[in-house]
Amino acid sequence: MHQKIFSKSRIKIFIGFTGLFFLILNGCFPHHPQSTFNTQGPVGLEQERLFILMFWLAIAVFAIVQSVLIYVLINFKRREYPIPGTDIRIPDVPPKQVHGNTKLEIIWTIIPVFLLAAIAVPTVQAIYSTAKPPISENVFEQPLEIEVVGHQWWFEFRYIDEGIVTANELYIPTGRPVNIQLKSQDVIHSFWIPKLAGKVDLVPNNNNSMWIQADTPGDYSGQCAEFCGIAHGRMRFRVHAETPENFDKWLESMRTPPVPFAGEGYGLFLANCSMCHTIDSYTSGSYEREVKIQDERWSDWYSDPEGAVRVSAPNLTHLAMRTTIGSGEQELNRENLIKWIEDPSYFKEGTRMQEVAQLYEGKKAKLSGSEIEAITDYLLSLAPPQLESSSTQLETELVSKEWDSPEEQGEYLFTSYGCASCHSIDEDETKIIGPGLWDIYEKSVSKVEGLSAEEYLEQSIRYPNEYIVEEYPEGVMPLIFENLPAEEIESLIAYLKTLSKK
Ligand code: HEC
Ligand code: HEC
Ligand SMILES: [Cu+2]
Q1: Contacts of 377 (CB under 8 A, 6+ apart)
Q2: How far is the CA of 9 from the centre of ligand 3 (A)?
Q3: Best CATH choice for the domain 34-129 from the list 1.10.3720.10, 2.60.120.560, 3.40.50.2300, 1.10.287.90
Q4: CATH 2.60.40.420: which residues of the chain?
Q5: More confident: 424 or 479
Q6: What is the value of pTM for the model shown?
Q7: Most buried in the list 106, 194, 197, 261, measured by CB within 10 Å?
Q8: What is the pLDDT confidence band of residue 395, given thresholds at 50, 70 and 90?
Q9: pLDDT of 199-214, one tens digit each?
Q10: Which of 477, 489, 490 has most ligand 2 atoms within 8 Å of its beta carbon, as the pocket-test mutant?
C-alpha cells in the first residue's frame, strides 16, 4: 500500500517526538535550578568542563561521520541514465565491489584510539580530584565532615564534629570543602545536587563518599536520583550555602533552645508526634541519642511494620528556621504546615508518617482543626529567640502564672506537657498510649527495689527508658523531660499523688 509522506499517524509521531525533544531540552537551560550547567564550586566546574570537552568531541565526530555518510548517500545513489534521443533508460551499473581496505581500517581504528586516550587523561584526573577534597594546612579550610543518611523518603544530615542533626535542608559554608559520607537506612538512594556535583549512591551497609564546595552563597536544589519507592519523585532537598560567618551563626542558632512555648500545641505534639520526631537537638548528648533512636525507630518498624507506632523521621529541631516541608516538596508556611499535618498525602503520597502514625492509620489526622492549628503554632515557634516572634507573649503568660499549690501546678503541667494525651487518670486505668496512672504513687512504692516512689516517678519521667512498663513500647514516651527543673518534677509527682482514693 502506498503511504503518504504526511499521513496522520506520522504527524502525530512527529509532534510527539518534537514535544519530548523540547521537554528534554528544557533541562539544559542553565538558569533552571536543577540544570547541570552553570555549575558552582570546584567539583561541579570540573565535571562540567569534562562534559563540555566530551560534548564537543562527540559533536565533531558526529559531524564528520554524518557528512561522509550524506556525501556517500547522495553521490552513490542508484540512478537510471536516459539514452539521449530515445525513450530508453539504462539502469545503473553496480560499482566495483571491494572487500577490505587496510589503510582505511587502520585509520578509522587509530582515530578513535587517540580520541579515547585524549578523553581518558582529563577523565582520570577528574576522578581523582573529585574523589577527595584537597588537603590544606589551614585549619579553617579543613573539610566540614557531614554524614548524609537516606531514608524513604527524606534525607537526614548529621554534622559529625558539631554534633548537630537536621533534615532535608543542608547548610554549608562557602569556600570550604564539605566531605560527605553517604549512608542509607533502607534502600539505595542517590544524592544529587546538579549545580554542585554529580550523583553518588547511598547504599545500605556500604558507605560511599563525595565532596562538594560552593563558592557563592545561595540555595541549591537537590533530589534523590535513584528510584527508591512510592514517594521517590518527591524526595528532594535544599542546600543553603552561607558565608562562613552566617554559617557559624546558623550553628550557634541550632545550639540555642527556642523560647519555651506554652500553648496547647506542645502537649499535642508530645502526645502525637514525639515518638517519631525529635525537637530538642540542642541539648547535650542529643547527637548520640538521635543517632541511636533513629535506628531504634527504624528497627521497630522494620521488624513489625503492622504493629509499630514509630519509624525513623526527620529531626524537627528549629523547624521554623527552614524554608520547606515534605522533603523540599513545599514551601514552609502556616497554611502548608496545617495541610501537611492534616493529610500528608495532600502534598506527598505514601509517606511513612501517614502510614505508620496511630493518629493517621493511612487516613486523615484524627485531630480537630483547632488542635492542628495549635500544633502548627507550636512548630512555627521552634526557632532560636531572635528569629522567633509570636510566642514571646505566651512565654510571659507562663512565667507570670502563680500557683496556689504544687498539685495545682502539677495538674497544669500534666496537661500542657501532653502527659494527659498518653496517660489516662481515671480509676478504670484506660489504656491510651501509655499506662493509666490511677493510683500510680501507691504502686510506685514497691516497683523497683531500692527506689522510693518519688525516685521511681522521677526516673520514669526523666529517663522513661530506664524501666519499661511491661507490655508498653520503649521509646514512645518523649525523652525530653530529662532537663525539667526539679520544681516541676516535684509538682508533677505531687499531682500524681492525688490520683488515688486515699
Ligand atoms: C510514625 C512516625 C511519625 C509520626 C507519629 C509523625 N510523623 Fe511527621 N514525619 C514522619 C516521617 C517519616 C516524615 C518524612 C515524610 C516524608 O517526607 O516522606 C515526617 C515529616 C514531617 C514533617 C516535614 C519535615 C520535613 O523536613 O520535610 C513535619 C513538619 C512533620 N512530620 C510533623 C509531624 C507532626 C506535627 C506530627 C504529629 C501530629 C507528626 N509529624 C507525626 C513520621 C512521623
Ligand atoms: C507520647 C505518649 C507519652 C507522653 C506524652 C508521656 N508518656 Fe509517660 N509513658 C508513656 C509510655 C508508652 C509509658 C510506658 C513505657 C515506659 O515505661 O517508658 C510511659 C510510662 C510512664 C510512667 C511509668 C508508669 C508505670 O506504671 O510505671 C510514668 C510515671 C509516666 N509515664 C509519666 C508521664 C508524665 C508525668 C508525662 C508528662 C510529663 C508523660 N508520662 C508523658 C507514654 C507517654
Ligand atoms: Cu530515594
Answers
A1: 261, 263, 265, 390, 391
A2: 39
A3: 1.10.287.90
A4: 139-254, 264-387
A5: 424
A6: 0.80
A7: 197
A8: very low
A9: 999 999 998 999 999 9
A10: 477
